[in-house]
Amino acid sequence: MTLLNQEFLKSDLPLPGRRQGKVRDIYQAQLNDGTDVLLIIASDRLSAFDVVMPNGIAGKGIVLTQISKFWFDMIAEKMSDEVTHHLLATDASDVADLTDDQKAPLKGRVMVGRRAKVIPVECVVRGYITGSGWKEYQKVGSVCGVKLPEGLKQCDKLPEPIFTPTTKDDVHDEAITFEQGCEMVGTELMTKVRDLSLSIYKMAHDYAAERGIILADTKFEFGTTEDGKILLIDEVLTPDSSRFWPADDYEPGRDQASFDKQIVRNYLQELCDDGKWDKQNPGPVLPDHVIDKTKSKYLEAYKLLTGSDLQV
What we know:
This protein is an alpha+beta fold. Helix content is 31%, strand content 24%. It has 2 domains: 3-115, Phosphorylase Kinase, domain 1, CATH 3.30.200; 118-259, D-amino Acid Aminotransferase, Chain A, domain 1 (2-Layer Sandwich), CATH 3.30.470. Strand 2 (24-30) and strand 3 form a beta hairpin.
């Protein structure tokens, strides 16, 4: 059985500073050479409607980590003069104080990253009008204070990508204007992360388009190092942090097919509509056919973006 077929729901490592999010487990760690790092483990847990489901999708954390690695490598190659990222490795081979048995199941699903002070703003870039942005536009004609042209249809491409930040919260992020972000972190820093976010999005959008994928929107996170440098952190341009649509099925005016967990959301919404679940804990056990279809979408996204099947 390959690691892609082994469900990994929780880590328990003898390292300090353990934090557990909906999907990721984070530890403070050191490399064998003494460098202080963060160990960010992408589990196979699956969250929808802010609820973690009882069962996950085997290998999902590996797929997401490897997609992030692909994009981090591309950003380093194409944008090294603009932005630096945190990723050092996607395995724990050089992490101190772990045995080989503890490292083995982490292969492909861990980000060993430089430490940084997290900037408390989610940097969302939208190139198309969809999701919560579409709902807001229908009501007020703008998104996060950015005025948009009249007459846009659902999922229309915007004249130019827009920056629509949110607060960073463990439970629910709240949309804010750029000006509110400036009040939170300072105008200079907010301007820099806005410009970086738009620049990375445009590069990734153009690349994805060449591969038959529309990058509708995405979110980035940034941190600052002790010497004041800005780092691109967390995951980047994955199906969990972005909307990817197949270009050959794109049609404005309706919802789009997507390479993400929309299959799970649709299944859960049907349960809600039938009165079988109320979007509260505990979540329902996901059936095999929902898990298998969702996993195939993640793997398809990886292959389309990278040009090869995922090997771990």
